[in-house]
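PROTEIN DESIGN WORKSHEET
SECTION A - STRUCTURE
LENGTH: 196
TOKENS:
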């Protein structure tokens, strides 16, 4: 109600429109989401958040990959224009879109481009490497995924992150390399026990 009251008195207040989008997703009210991101983009035609919600709507509610790809490309252009060094935003967008796209290659290839830019911004960060590996895994490029998971594991000096090891194992299994995966299990089990 507070958001609606605020928008009633000031219908183009951007933070309230973004909050209306967020609330619509929480309520799983896609008609409200469409109304909210439309209002947001009417107030700010280059709103990064507006394009995030629009692309989300197209993927989750409509399943329209062609239009979603088009909006996702526009979103990437806006991020490059407005937030070219914001690795956190790029990773947030890439993770979101890759998780909701149903392994659609047209969406995943855009996410891969974003994540590769994040790697250029911080080549020592493990998160972009892991996310890139996961995206390659989703498009069934297991060799590339395996190499990236191995790279992440070698950078994981304190061994607190289990994701690289899990990635290595699942990639080996996907490639049909069961013996290699089986050989990794004792090491993985030891890591898990060390976590307890």
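SECTION B - SEQUENCE
RESIDUE ASSIGNMENT:
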């Amino acid at each position: 109600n507070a958001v609606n009251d605020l928008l009633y008195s000031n219908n183009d207040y951007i933070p309230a429109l973004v909050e209306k989008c967020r609330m619509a997703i929480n309520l799983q009210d896609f008609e409200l989401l469409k109304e909210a991101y439309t209002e947001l983009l009417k107030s700010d035609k280059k709103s990064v958040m507006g394009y995030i919600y629009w692309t989300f709507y197209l993927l989750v509610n409509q399943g329209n990959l062609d239009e979603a790809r088009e909006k996702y490309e526009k979103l990437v252009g806006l991020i490059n224009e407005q937030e070219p060094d914001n690795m956190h935003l790029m990773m947030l967008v890439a993770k979101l879109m890759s998780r909701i796209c149903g392994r659609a290659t047209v969406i995943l290839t855009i996410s891969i481009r974003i994540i590769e830019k994040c790697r250029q911004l911080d080549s020592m960060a493990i998160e972009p490497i892991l996310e890139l590996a996961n995206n390659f895994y989703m498009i069934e490029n297991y060799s590339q995924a395996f190499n990236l998971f191995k790279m992440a594991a070698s950078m994981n000096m304190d061994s607190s992150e289990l994701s690289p090891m899990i990635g290595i194992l699942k990639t080996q299994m996907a490639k049909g390399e069961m013996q290699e995966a089986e050989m990794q299990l004792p090491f993985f089990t030891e890591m898990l026990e060390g976590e307890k």
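SECTION C - NOTES
Residues 81 and 138 are 28 Å apart (CA to CA).
The mean pLDDT is 91.
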